[in-house]
Amino acid sequence: MDTPKFTRVKEDFICEKCGFAVSGSGYTNHCPKCLWSKHVDINPGDRASECGGLMQPVGFRLEKGEQAILHRCVACKHEKWNKTDKADDFEEILKLSKNFQ
């Protein structure tokens, strides 16, 4: 049986890095204030990862007009690209853009 590649899960959460209260949209995968994420998924929304480590924003790219943040898990070093969101702190994105890929 195939597992879905994306499961929409609308969850609010408190960022474990900066303490910001995040209102999830079902597509939210990182804190819009500090841009950190958490390693909870294997496929987006499945909550199947056993790691649970914090994922540091370490890179930025602009491809075909879409911006994305590279997150690296501080526990297991897994890397994943995530799209930016209009709610993301622009100053934090600018800091990341020095790591433009």
Keywords:
four-stranded antiparallel beta sheet, 1 helix, mainly beta, 101 residues, two-stranded antiparallel sheet, 29% strand
Can you describe what's shown?
The protein is mostly beta strands and 101 residues long. It has one domain (13-99). 7% of the residues lie in helices and 29% in strands. The chain is built from 1 helix and 6 strands; from the N terminus they run ββββββα. It has one helix spanning 90-96, and strands at residues 13-14, 21-22, 37-38, 54-63, 66-73, 79-83. It has a 4-stranded antiparallel sheet with strand order 3-4-5-6, with no helix packed on it. A hairpin with a 5-residue loop joins strand 5 and strand 6. The longest helix is centred in the C-terminal third of the chain and has 7 residues, at 90-96. The radius of gyration is 13 Å and the shape is globular. The termini are far apart. The mean pLDDT is 90.
Topology, element by element:
Blueprint lengths: L12 E2 L6 E2 L14 E2 L15 E10 L2 E8 L5 E5 L6 H7 L5
Antiparallel strand pairs: 1-2, 3-4, 4-5, 5-6
Number of strands: 6
User: How many structural domains can be distinguished in the coordinates?
Assistant: 1
- General shape: globular
Compute the separation of the termini in Å.
36 Å
- Total helices: the number is 1
Task: Write down the oligomeric state.
Answer: single chain
**Beta-strand level of the residues, as a percent range?**
25-35%
Low-confidence stretches: none
SSE class = mainly beta
